[in-house]
């Protein structure tokens, strides 16, 4: 797909030599580097769907949601043990205990686990339990943290900073790559634009998805949960993301029979909705952009 002229990123070969598509003719104009997480392959044609709670709150809650995510046919489990909360008085996650719960959920369901690391001092600990380490939006430009996850020997899910340009986002990925780790999946999760917070939580920037694919060979996925903040919008946003070329989705799910989640309850979808999204995603071969190209 040729979208030259939409964005000017002419400095990329200098600022991101390791990840810039132009510097790597082996990937041609469209090929993606496949990032493998315990047998789950990002960028290999079939979109990857990750589901799970916003936060690990208890063993029962996590196992119930993990089972539902597995029954829905999703590929991976998400869940935060360390949570970046706006208020320090809000639930901060279960920490090490949460990581152990995620391990138990992986053991039972077989689903690989992605979870967030926030503190460079705890990256090693998170890497012991996680199959993939998530860098959250608020930490996208925490350069010591990026270098540390670059050395941790695990694939990384790098969320876009909520106010980050594409150049800044790819620059953050380059910090990880510079440590020798090219197993990076990028994730658009909604940005702060003038309308953010008025009728949805953030502004879902789907235009960035084809741009990412044009400028780097790394896979890119979309988080429709944080981007919209509204459960009813998650399914349409997921479909739209795939049409824009997203190579996967990361979605927050709640067990509707259990207590209301302590974090991000308004955006959590039920397992039946996740199952519909998984069906749509796994059948989705090629994007609308590619079909008209
Ligand atoms: C999350 O995925 O749990 C999360 C906190 O997301 P973000 O960093 O995109 O806000
Ligand atoms: Mn959340």
Low-confidence stretches: none
Largest sheet: 8 strands, parallel
- Which radius of gyration do the C-alpha atoms yield? 18 Å
Instruction: Provide the list of bound ligands, each named once.
Output: phosphoenolpyruvate, manganese (II) ion
- The number of E-state strands comes to 10
Oligomer: single chain
What structural class is derived from the secondary structure elements?
Answer: alpha/beta
Gross morphology is globular
The share of residues in helices is 25-40%
Provide the β-strand percentage band.
Answer: 5-15%
Helix and strand run: HEEEHEHEHEHEHEHEHHEHH
Give the terminus-to-terminus CA distance.
6 Å
Order of adjacent strands in the largest pleated sheet: 9-8-7-6-5-4-3-10
Spell out the blueprint of helices and strands.
Elements: H1 12-15, E1 35-37, E2 40-42, E3 48-52, H2 59-71, E4 76-78, H3 96-109, E5 113-116, H4 123-129, E6 132-135, H5 143-150, E7 156-159, H6 166-178, E8 184-188, H7 208-215, E9 220-222, H8 224-228, H9 231-243, E10 248-252, H10 271-283, H11 288-292
Helix pairs in contact: 2-3, 5-6, 9-10
The chain binds phosphoenolpyruvate and manganese (II) ion.
